[in-house]
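ok so I'm stuck.
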Amino acid sequence: MLMPHSTPDANRAVLSGFPEKLRPTLQLIEKNPSGEVAVALVQYVASFVHPDMVCNLAMMESLPVPAKQAALEFFEHCLSVGLTIEQQGDLLRFIQPYIVATLGGQRPH
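replied:
not stuck anymore, here's the structure
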């Protein structure tokens, strides 16, 4: 499994750079990258930051309550505050390895 960061300290440092309401979703992805929750959340996050990615929101219904709450906070932040171009790029860089590992996407050139 390809991991975007090599150490827990590096992961915490990267996550701390994101707005607080985005972090729980990203932490759930990191917690179990190959699990069903992470696969759904990778698609969810990717749909906010990549024009070719879509997410079927119906698949979010089967997520456990903590994942639903995290996704709801992520959505609320994006809808009410928005994401800057820089934040979109940071999120895409963060989830790109998970896209490759879980969804079979391609690595950037």
